Every structure is written in structure tokens, then in C-alpha cells.
């Protein structure tokens, strides 16, 4: 076989241009050899002054470290989640840094208002909560007019949005604006009413989603409640502007542009009536009235009721007849009043009965407002009267606790019409209406708003006004119920106690009005007089020797003032009520101002002839004799005693009563009554302060020469020495002002009756000579039990008398009695009385220092020493 030749190298190179590389499937191709490497490698350069974090030092940031400016920028991000997170971040920042909102409030509102029409539901809700919880409360004190104007343009734009959810959220935002700035409704009333009318015409949404309708209607009720109106007489209260106590809405009272919206409001009422009419088939078809349907219907009826009240009582130029034209009256009569009363088809639950009761009450109120305009037939009118009677008696509502609460909350809506109904209906219905109203008044909770509303109506029916004519004495039906109402008032005061001062104030205002009006009404006059016994428990009572204070003591000052003013209008204040008031005045817990006010009003009542003179003086004497002085010491040592001392109060009381007693008419008659009363009280040995007060009363009413009887002079001669000894022992000698206050009444008596002074000196002499004899005052026996105490007390007393110039002149004619007293002192000290060294020293320092003035009083040896002094020196051996 022939071997082939191997190819040459030239042949091999010539045949292969590029080397073919076999690649395995799935392997990544290597980069080409001429590829450019674009990788950049670098090292971080740390420059602290250029750090992003340091730019936020000192700035308020959220939890994620974002500033307010960054969060506001993110609030308009295209991503809904970012927008929501930005709103949550703003809320977090504002909570932790409230100053940020105050500083940038207008920028925040200007930026966030764009989100009112946001396409995302979650973002809109987050914005609403942000405004509700942080922005509106944080800007409450700012210029709200500018603040609201920034929002209203965007709210109105949202109200015209094609998306129904955005439109509903706009109404929700406007409701929030009205809550914080009510005047904004008057500025945009026409636009707002038009927007509500447009949204309510779209019945396809509210029949499907009642929750959205409920939110919209609740805002409408709030707006309409701001319509100004002149309250009818029956809705005015006892005090001031007479607003019914159960309802006091914050509504404007001036015409602020609402007169131009009558037409829009009429159109809105017609739309609301149609909405209500659309719900009636649903009520009949539903097995049970659910909560959402009930809330929607109730808001519709409340809106209609407020609008009707504005038509009739509103502050505008049109008359109710021109507003409630044929179209509106026909719609109200047929579509609303024609379906009354609403009743459940199936009695499945107690709550359902209560809900229908509430709806019927509102419809009945609308009817009663329109009664004179729609002119109902007798059958229709009687149907409403039957409902009112049953509603007042509580037979329609359930008897459960929730049913009772529902009844008390909503029945006041019917009460303003009771006075006028009772004055216009026939006698049979008049008795039934008043009977049911009286049951309501007596059965409701004393602390409830229903009780206050009943009190307002009672005033209307007790104190007649222009449109009521049933308070004549011949109208026995009404008089019987009036008697029941008046007699319930004091009992109600005691039930309220001091827990509800505002309710007690209303009752007291009514009592005061009754007292003021009773003078022109014989029936009210008699009934007002008869409440004194029940009213005495309001002040205080004494049962089986135990004293119980009534609510009067714990009520605020304004309530106490009202109750005190009521006392003036009783034509004959009985003793029981006076006794009750006396206990209050003597209570240390009662403020002195209140006590003085009671005395002032009672004295005015006495001058008007409402209190017998004997009872009035007895009241004064009881105050003077039983007033308890705190602390008991006249000159307190401890600082705590000074703080609680009522000595100054008692001095003011004494001066006040002395002034009143001196103005009570014939001074001689008053004096003899007071004299007899004081002598009887003195025999009871009253405390020093009370005795001084009664003595001051005597000298104010007495004259010179004295009017005191012989019996009184003898009684006083036995009492005054002990009283004077008490003054000497209780009051320090250097406290001249205090001892003069207590001893001055005695000096006046000595000046007016020399016989009294002689008898007093005789009693003092007997007191020294007879060791077994004690002075009538129980305190003197405690101070002067030994010979030394008797000598010191007597000498100090005589020196007090000597210091007064007038009494010194008077006593100069009684040298014999004074000399006898001094001789008794000498005899007492020269007797075989055993004394310790300490007693002797005290006697020397106290007696010998005072002997010269005493000697001059009797005129013995003015330039030398008296025999009395000589005997003392001889006994104790000192010169």
C-alpha cells in the first residue's frame, strides 16, 4: 500500500484562517478580548460637615426622620401608600412637636386641602382624622375666618365630584368645619343647602348604603340647628331668656343672611319629605327596623322639624303663611303627617318599640308646630292628642331601663306645647293632658333634664301669660293640678339635696317667682304660704333632740341667696321656719355673710309686716344667747386659735342686731319685750361673750334715767358682780380695749341707775365677808375660791371702775359702800388666815401697789397712809 504524503506546513496554515472554538451548551460566553471594562472602584470619603443627617439637627422630624416639609411633599406623591404614610407622619410630628403646627399652620392647610378630593378612600379618611384630632384643635384660637376660607373652595369642589364617595367625604369635612366654626354655615348657606339637595336626590345611593346617608344627614341636622329663631314663649325658661332647660342649642339670635335662603330651604324640605316617603315601603317590608334605617329616618325628621321651626319662629321678613304655601303644606300633611303614627309590623324587640316611639314624637312635634297652618280635622287632632297623652304617661315606651332613659330623653320635645294645649282644648281633654303631664313631672328622675323641662312648663301654667286664660279662680280643673305642682317643689328640693346645684337653682327660681306673683293671685298666695312646713326641712330639722341640717347648708352661694329671698314673700312667717333658720345661723359651718343675709331679709320681712314682733325679737335673742364663740378663751394664746376665732363675727352680729332692734318702732314697747327675754336668759348663766352682747342690747334700748323695772334691777345686781369678776380674771390688765368692750355696758347701767350700782357694791361686799357665799356667775366661783383670789379680784374690779372718769364721779357718792368693801378687805387679811410665803409675796405685790387709788376713792387721809394700809403693814411687818 502506498503511504500518502504528509501535508506541508504551508498547506496547513493556508487552509485555516480562524481557530474555531467549540462551546458547550448553557455555558456563559466569555467577554470579548477587546471589551472595555466600565467598572469603577472608589473609596468612601468621610466629610462630617456634608452629612445629610446633620442638616436635620434641631429640626422636628417624624419617627422615620422626615421633616414637615418633606412630609408635605410626599402627601402629593403618585403612590397612595406614600401619601397615606405622609399623613400619618404629619400626625406623629404634630403630636410630638405642636409648635410646628402653630408656626406653619397655613402652609400645612394649603398643602393638605388638595387631598380632600383624593382618589384613595384610605387617604381621605386619614386626612379627615388628621384634621379632626390635630389640626382643628390646634388652630382653635387662631384667625378661623382665614383658616376656613382656605378649605371651603376645595370642599365645594369635592361636593361636585363625580365620585359619590368623594362627595360624601366633602359633606363630612364640612360637618367638621361647622363643629369648630359655626358661623361658616351662614357664609355659605345657599351653596350648602343646594349641595345637600343635590346629594339627597340621588336615592339610588342612600337606599343601598344607609351608612353614607346617615353621615350626610347628621351633618345636615347640625347645620340647620344653626338657623336663628325667636323662641316661642313656651320654650323659654324660668330665668333670663327662658330657653327650655332640656335644650339650649348654641344658635345665633340675629339675622345673619338667613332670610335669603327660604326658597332653598323649602326645596330641601320637599326633598327630605320624599326621602322619608321612600323609606316607608322599606319599613313595611323589613322584619325589623335596623339601627341605620332608624338613624336615617330620625335625621330626616329632625331636619324637617328644625326647618319648620325656622319657617314659623325664624328671624326673617316672610310670614309663616307665605312660607308654608299649598305645595309645602300638602306635602307635609299627606306624606308626613298622614302616615302618623308609625308602628312596627312585627313586635320582635323592645328596642324596636322605643325607636318607633322616638320617630312618632318628632312627627308629633312637627304637627304641633304646624297645627294652626295646616288646620287638621277633628279626628286627626284627636289622634295626636291620644298619642301625647300616652307618651306622657309612658305607656308607649318599654318599661325597661333603656326604655325609661329613651322616654326621659325625648319626651321633652312635646312639653313646650302642653301649656297652650291645656288652655285651648275642651275640658275633658284638658284634664287628661294635665293629668298625664303631672304624672310625668312626678315620675321622672329628679336629676334629669326632663324634670327641668317640666319645671319650665309649670311656670308657664302657674304664672299666666298673654295667650293663657285658665288660671282664673273659677277653673277648678287647673287649680287642682297647680296645687299638686306647688306642693311638690319643696319636696323636690330635699330630694335633690346638694348633688345637683343647677337643678336646685331652677326650683328656687320658680319658688321665688311664685312668691313675687302670689300677691296678685289669691290662690297662689294661699298655696305659697302652705309650703313653709315642707320648706323648713330644706334648712334644718330637729327630731328627738337631734339636729339635722338640710341641703341649704351645702349649696353654692347663688342657691342660698335665692332661698333666702324666697323668705321675704311669706306673708306670715311661722315659728317652725324661723326655728329652722335660727339653727342655720348658729351653725359654725355657715359663712358669716350668709347668716347676716338671712337676718337682713328677715328684718325686711318684719318691717313689711310678715313676722310678729315677739317672734322677731325671740329670733334675735336666741342668736345672741346661743352663738358659740370659738375659741372659748377671749384672749387666745395659740396662733391656731386666732385663725379659727369668730369673736369678730359675733361682735358684728351684736352690732347688727342692736341696730335693727333700735329701728323696730316704739322703743319702750321693744325695750320691755327685750328686757323680759334677756332677764330670763341671764338666769341661765350664759358665757361671758353672750352675756356682754345681751347687756349691750339693753343699754342701746334703755335711756337715762333707766327704764329697767325693780325686778330687773335686783336680778342684774345679782348677776353683774360675777360678770365683772369674770372680765377681771379673763382679760389681761394691759388689754384696755378688750376689757372696756366688756365692762362698758355695766358703766352705762351704773350711770343710768344709782340704785343698781349700790346693790352691786353691796353684793361685792357680801362676797368678801361671807366665805361660803359665791357670786351668781358660775365662772367666778372657779376663779375666786380662796381669800387671796377674792381680794385680788375685788381690788382689780374697783380699780377698773376708778379708771373711768364718769363712773368715778358717780361712785364718789357711795363712799360708805366703798369704805365697807375696803374694811372687809382689811378684816379679811388681818384674820388668822394661813398663807404661804408665796401667797404673802403675791399679796404684797398685788394689794399694796393698788391701795393709794382705793384710799383716794373714799377720801381717807389723802396725804398720809390710811388705817387700812397701817393694818396691812402691821400684819405683814413691812413699811
The fraction of residues assigned to DSSP E strands is under 5%
Structural class based on helices, strands and sheet pairing = mainly alpha
Biggest sheet: strand arrangement: 1-2
> What overall geometry do the principal axes of the alpha carbons give?
elongated
The end-to-end distance, rounded to whole angstroms, is 190 Å
Largest sheet: 2 strands, antiparallel
Total strand segments: 2
Q: State the low-pLDDT regions, or none.
A: 50-54, 237-256, 469-474, 637-642, 778-784, 860-879
Q: Rounded to an integer, what's the Rg over CA atoms?
A: 48 Å
User: Mean of residue pLDDT?
Assistant: 80
Helix content: 55-70%
Number of helices: 44
Please, could you describe this protein's structure?
By secondary structure, the protein is mainly alpha-helical. It has 44 helices and 2 strands. Residues 146-215 form the Pre-rRNA-processing protein Ipi1 N-terminal domain.
Task: Give a quick precis of the structure.
The chain is mainly alpha-helical.
Write the layout of secondary structure elements.
Blueprint: H1 9-15, H2 68-74, H3 80-96, H4 98-103, H5 105-112, H6 121-138, H7 144-159, H8 164-180, H9 184-187, H10 189-200, H11 203-206, H12 210-224, H13 262-285, H14 291-313, H15 320-323, H16 326-336, H17 350-374, H18 378-393, H19 401-410, H20 418-424, H21 427-443, H22 449-462, H23 476-496, H24 501-518, H25 522-530, H26 532-539, E1 540-543, E2 546-549, H27 557-567, H28 575-586, H29 592-607, H30 613-626, H31 639-644, H32 647-661, H33 667-682, H34 688-701, H35 710-730, H36 736-752, H37 754-769, H38 778-783, H39 787-803, H40 805-811, H41 815-830, H42 837-847, H43 851-858, H44 867-876
Helix pairs in contact: 2-3, 3-6, 6-8, 7-8, 8-12, 10-13, 12-14, 13-14, 13-16, 14-17, 17-18, 17-19, 18-21, 20-21, 21-22, 21-23, 22-24, 23-24, 23-25, 23-26, 24-25, 24-27, 26-28, 27-29, 28-29, 28-30, 30-33, 30-34, 32-34, 33-34, 33-35, 34-36, 35-36, 35-37, 35-39, 36-37, 37-41, 39-42, 39-43, 41-44
